[in-house]
Write a sequence for this structure.
């Protein structure tokens, strides 16, 4: 009932690291930005046709869906949680969309809100379970991962190709800018998501609660912040982003398939970490996540341009980068060694 | 002093009964699944001898379940230390790829020497991978889930790099033995898994390893103050987990005589975690039960077989697994239990605190 | 329990207390933590809440701030009854708490920490410039100059504490509860904190100040409520107390009966303290927990560490076991330098340590009595040299019998045992390693009288057999009875070492603890 050494021990643990928190968040971000510039530079020197604005835009075209899901993952990771269901939710969304549009002839306009709602609701449900029963996020979202992937197969084990004109039309629309540069509709959507996420995280109470939750959950609760609602909402946002990412992927591939987006949760988490967000939560920027996605895309592009390198090098390099950034986070003084 | 032996005997009995109950529930679930299958297929329990080999659904469950048992075995010790190893699936793929890659390039892939070298190579690399995980966790203090995520991401790439993105096929009788062979009319993989489980059980329980691991997982602070070198133990369990995964990888690739860097051991880490949790070892560390894990792995494997025999797409097993995860976690969640107790407030038994006995936990499920 | 009522302090803001608690009762499984405790808090006063371990301070604060609901009694705020069920309700009623562990978010800026949840907004968006301006304004008002844009974690703990207070006051400015805010602050930081507290008092805020530091109570507070063993000991204007009388009220026990103690340790002190010490510590220190201290411990000698809770007793002992690393100073064992970098080093040199927190730092609750007993010995041997099961059973049976651990079942889970039996298991664990120096941190706290006497007897016997014992206890009686020498700690400093040769009276010990000087 009285203070004991448990408190004493916590007090003894140095409450602030040697490096200031600001440096801690900025260093990985600068490293990532530098990495991007270097990779682009190397690519430009080594490969013909690399040094063009369209290459950069293509990065966005090819990775728009990843950007969207990584933004969702950033929300979750900022609270110190993790969402392993992302890839499966993306696959389920592609499946649901393709199935409803192709096999049932639903109009795309009706399918979109339904898919988004499904994603957000399932995310929120996972968040509710995590919060209410105090179960580790990793195991709850693992169940979500199984469930979503399994539901894909109950719809169909085969790939469903979409040839609905409205959908293919939307997918193939190119928006031309000056100099013959173009982007696709998903790129604009992804950028809109990014900007919205930025505004939400940095300029709304919900966003600040997300950071507070990741900084210190019990403090946040004692400060009177709605930690439970925030947690549920964060997983809801992640589910919503996964569903939207799934829609964009459907447009990108014009198909729904249960094997789509295998391991995309890992890419999303990697992009977030490379973008400077601490896996222990509380610190990071959603714009950093965008940089992280671009780095992943750039690795892919370089591997493609090289021609002699095979696609698996992408995974290996991402893994290596992940290692570097996680060790960097540790050395710059992560506050907590364990997070639930 | 006289009444004390009696008391001690009774209390000891309670202790043993509780230990029995740890295995009771996974065993009952397994039995229920098996009986359910029997209802659909009346020859489900039949075991035939063909060409001097045992055949039958039960044998198949054991045979296909062997790799999962092994991976779950390693995972059990990791989880007992409050850790988790997400990289086992990648290790499975890498081990298979290394062994098959070596055999495919060997002058006489059918020779025992070449097979042993291949196995040695796979185990050696697994050792290094486990060491890397262990050092990240114990040396740098990275959260286990994060530390092993790195290898989970990169590992599949490495496996594909080794196989050059191809599915490497090998023809080697000694290698085929590991996962697909029979010995004394029993599947060799099952024997191998049984031996490894027995050996692990023997080593952890006869040496002080098991006790020290449970101590580190059960109360890290107290363990430090009692002088346990947790760092070394952590490295050890991650290395062991990687080695188990490697053997599982050899089995899987041997059984199909090929290595597939992309799909071998896909999601086996999740199945293994599930098996451990179903087997009664809590994700929060501490007491572990190897017997429970074996039962848990067999439950998972039987679940897959059941879905298969039901004729629904085998991939939908995932849906069932999802429900198993949710139910098991809810049952293990103290908050859920507390709520369940509160709802049954009318029961005369006072609500136990965090220390609800296993029987009670299960009864509430 | 009736409260000896004293008139409200002269110069207090009003005649009516802003916060009043009557007859608060709170029961935890097995303990009556609060038994009819009352408290009055007037606007514009700094009110100290004092008491030793188990006095019920923390519980009372938790009841007042809504962390735990009370089982009985009433809490009145401005004369209206309230029954808080969570801290937010208490906050809304005007009671804010600042804990020793700063409950803010280190990753957010100072401005955000002050205003989060109440940021000025326009169209749903946070107005950052306005937020910063308001935060700066609040800080300036309280004469604190801080860069509000810097992350809180970049500031020292003291500044974080101040920010926490500013936030608490801005949320609700009636009652401010400060729970041991100064435990890890240095002198200058404490002065800064007190400056702020005084300014708030002058504005009419009622401040409940929980601390272990006597000087600070006399320096800052107007009145004090003393709790002892879950009961109200009394409420006094600080001017009516001296440090000695205050400590007497906290520790309790009639001095007269203490006087009659048979001093079994008396007289042998000199011979036991002769010769080369087993352990010699010189200028051993750790920033924020204990000032440099010297200590010699001889074989067969019982050294008592006396002092109030939070005086640095535990901290001093932990350095000798390597549980915490020392910042400076040196330790030699039998004349040879022995840096105690970790518990392993200390154990290898024959030192054992029973923590006061049996559950969190001692036992592994899931394991059996047998396993807990052999754990230290097994850890020292390493996992490759296991004790056979037969040997384990033998050791467990032997110690269960020797210490009369109940139930006498080596396979019972240790978490199901009572506190006294858990303590014995912990003792057995260390005794079977045959330590040269046994450090016991509050070994008799929270256990029944019988077990207590047994443990005291055991300590005396161990010393007779040549073991050096460092005995930490809040109970002067125990310390006086068992120790050959007594080291007194006060406010994280070792202020005196007294040879327990019969000249140490309880009064003398009490005075040393209270004033820091042996006069």
């Amino acid at each position: 009932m009285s203070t004991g050494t448990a408190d004493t021990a916590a007090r003894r643990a140095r409450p602030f690291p040697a490096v200031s928190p600001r440096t801690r968040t900025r260093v990985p971000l600068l490293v990532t930005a530098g990495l991007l510039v270097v990779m682009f530079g190397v690519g430009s020197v080594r490969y013909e046709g690399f040094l063009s604005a369209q290459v950069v835009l293509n990065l966005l075209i090819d990775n728009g869906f990843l950007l969207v899901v990584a933004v969702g993952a950033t929300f979750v990771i900022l609270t110190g949680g993790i969402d392993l269901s992302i890839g499966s939710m993306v696959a389920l969304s592609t499946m649901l969309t393709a199935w409803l549009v192709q096999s049932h002839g639903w109009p795309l306009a009706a399918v979109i809100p339904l898919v988004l709602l499904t994603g957000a609701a399932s995310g929120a449900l996972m968040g509710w379970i995590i919060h209410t029963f105090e179960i580790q996020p990793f195991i709850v979202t693992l169940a979500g991962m199984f469930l979503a992937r399994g539901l894909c197969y109950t719809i169909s084990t085969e790939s469903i190709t979409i040839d609905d004109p409205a959908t293919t039309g939307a997918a193939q629309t190119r928006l031309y800018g000056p100099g013959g540069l173009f982007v696709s509709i998903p790129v604009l959507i992804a950028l809109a998501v990014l900007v919205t996420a930025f505004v939400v995280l940095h300029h709304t109470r919900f966003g600040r609660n997300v950071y507070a939750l990741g900084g210190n959950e019990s403090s946040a609760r004692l400060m009177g912040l709605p930690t439970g609602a925030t947690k549920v909402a964060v997983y809801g946002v992640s589910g919503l982003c996964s569903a939207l990412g799934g829609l964009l992927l459907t447009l990108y591939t014009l198909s729904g398939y249960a094997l789509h987006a295998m391991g995309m949760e890992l890419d999303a988490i990697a992009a977030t970490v490379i973008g400077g967000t601490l896996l222990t939560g509380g610190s990071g920027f959603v714009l950093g996540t965008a940089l992280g996605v671009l780095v992943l895309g750039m690795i892919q592009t370089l591997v493609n341009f090289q021609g002699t390198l095979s696609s698996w090098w992408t995974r290996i390099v991402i893994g290596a980068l992940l290692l570097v950034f996680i060790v960097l986070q540790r050395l710059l003084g992560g506050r907590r060694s364990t997070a639930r | 002093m006289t009444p004390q032996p009696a008391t001690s005997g009774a209390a000891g009995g309670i202790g043993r009964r509780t230990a029995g109950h740890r295995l009771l529930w996974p065993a009952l679930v397994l039995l229920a699944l098996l009986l359910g299958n029997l209802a659909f297929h009346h020859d489900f329990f039949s075991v035939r001898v063909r060409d001097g080999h045992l055949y039958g659904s039960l044998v198949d469950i054991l045979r296909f379940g062997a790799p999962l048992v092994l991976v779950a075995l390693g995972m059990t010790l990791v989880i007992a230390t409050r850790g988790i190893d997400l990289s086992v699936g990648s290790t499975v793929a890498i081990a298979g790829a290394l062994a098959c890659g070596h055999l495919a390039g060997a002058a006489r892939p059918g020779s025992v020497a070449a097979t042993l070298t291949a196995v040695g190579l796979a185990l050696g690399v697994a050792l290094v991978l486990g060491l890397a995980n262990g050092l990240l966790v114990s040396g740098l203090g990275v959260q286990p889930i994060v530390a092993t995520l790195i290898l989970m991401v990169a590992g599949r790439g490495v496996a594909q790099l080794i196989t050059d993105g191809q599915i490497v096929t090998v023809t080697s009788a000694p290698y085929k033995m590991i996962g697909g062979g029979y010995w004394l009319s029993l599947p060799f993989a099952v024997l191998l898994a049984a031996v490894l489980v027995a050996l692990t059980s023997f080593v952890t329980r006869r040496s002080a390893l098991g006790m020290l691991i449970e101590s580190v997982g059960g109360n890290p602070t107290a363990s430090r103050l009692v002088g346990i070198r947790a760092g070394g133990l952590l490295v050890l369990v991650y290395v062991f987990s990687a080695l188990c995964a490697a053997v599982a990888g050899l089995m899987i690739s041997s059984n199909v005589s090929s290595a597939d860097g992309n799909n071998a051991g896909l999601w086996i880490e999740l199945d293994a975690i599930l098996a451990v949790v179903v087997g009664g070892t809590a994700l929060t560390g501490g007491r572990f039960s190897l017997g429970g894990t074996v039962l848990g792995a067999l439950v998972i494997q039987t679940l897959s077989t059941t879905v298969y025999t039901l004729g629904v797409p085998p991939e939908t097993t995932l849906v069932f697994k999802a429900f198993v995860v949710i139910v098991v976690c809810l049952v293990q969640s103290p908050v859920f239990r507390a709520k369940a107790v509160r709802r049954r407030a009318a029961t005369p038994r006072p609500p136990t605190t965090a220390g609800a006995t296993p029987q009670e936990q299960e009864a509430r499920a | 329990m009736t409260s000896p009522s004293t008139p409200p302090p002269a110069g207090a803001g009003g005649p009516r207390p802003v916060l009043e608690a009557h007859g608060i009762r709170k029961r935890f499984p097995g303990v009556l933590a609060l038994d009819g405790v009352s408290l009055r808090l007037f606007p514009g006063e700094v009110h100290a809440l004092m008491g030793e371990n188990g006095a019920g301070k923390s519980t009372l604060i938790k009841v007042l701030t809504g962390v735990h609901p009370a089982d009985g009694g009433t809490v009145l705020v401005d004369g209206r009854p309230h029954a808080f069920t969570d801290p937010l309700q208490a906050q809304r009623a005007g009671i804010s708490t600042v804990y020793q562990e700063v409950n803010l978010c280190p990753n957010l800026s100072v401005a955000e920490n002050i205003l989060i949840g109440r940021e000025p907004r326009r169209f749903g968006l946070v107005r950052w410039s306005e937020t910063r301006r308001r935060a700066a304004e609040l800080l300036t008002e309280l004469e604190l100059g801080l860069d509000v844009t810097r992350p809180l974690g970049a500031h020292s703990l003291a500044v974080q504490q101040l920010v926490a207070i500013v936030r608490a006051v801005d949320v609700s400015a009636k009652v401010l509860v400060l729970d041991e805010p100064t435990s890890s602050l240095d002198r200058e930081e404490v002065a800064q904190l007190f400056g702020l507290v005084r300014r708030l008092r002058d504005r009419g805020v009622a401040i409940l100040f929980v601390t272990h530091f006597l000087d600070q109570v006399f320096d800052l507070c107007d009145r004090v409520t003393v709790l002892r063993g879950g009961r109200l000991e009394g409420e006094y204007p600080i001017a009516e107390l001296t440090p000695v009388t205050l400590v007497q009220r906290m520790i309790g026990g009639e001095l007269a009966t203490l006087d009659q103690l048979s001093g079994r340790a008396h007289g042998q002190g000199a011979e036991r303290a002769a010769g080369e010490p087993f352990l010699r510590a010189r200028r051993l220190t750790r920033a924020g927990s204990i000032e440099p201290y010297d200590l010699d411990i001889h074989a067969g000698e019982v050294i008592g560490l006396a002092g109030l809770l939070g005086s640095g007793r535990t901290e001093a002992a932990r350095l000798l076991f390597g549980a915490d690393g020392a910042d400076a100073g040196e330790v030699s064992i039998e004349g040879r330098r022995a840096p105690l970098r970790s518990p392993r080093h200390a154990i290898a040199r024959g030192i054992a340590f029973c923590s006061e927190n049996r559950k969190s730092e001692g036992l592994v609750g899931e394991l059996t009595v047998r396993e807990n007993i052999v754990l230290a010995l097994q850890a020292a041997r390493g996992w490759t040299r296991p004790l056979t099961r037969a040997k384990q059973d033998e050791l467990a049976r032997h110690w269960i019998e020797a210490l009369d651990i109940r139930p006498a079942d080596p396979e019972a889970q240790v978490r199901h045992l009572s506190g006294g039996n858990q303590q014995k298991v912990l003792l057995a664990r260390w005794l079977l390693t045959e330590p040269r120096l046994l450090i016991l941190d509050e070994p008799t706290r929270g256990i029944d009288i019988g077990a207590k006497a047994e443990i005291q007897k055991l300590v005396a016997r161990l010393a007779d057999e040549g073991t050096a014992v460092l005995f930490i206890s809040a109970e002067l009686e125990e310390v006086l009875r068992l120790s050959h020498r007594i080291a007194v700690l006060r406010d994280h400093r070792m202020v005196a070492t007294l040879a327990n040769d019969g000249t140490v009276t309880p009064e003398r010990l009490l005075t040393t603890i209270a004033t820091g000087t042996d006069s």
The longest strand of chain B covers residues 48-50. Residues 1-20, 346-365 of chain B have pLDDT under 50 and may be disordered. Strands of chain B lie at 48-50, 53-55, 167-169, 182-183, 186-187, 258-260.
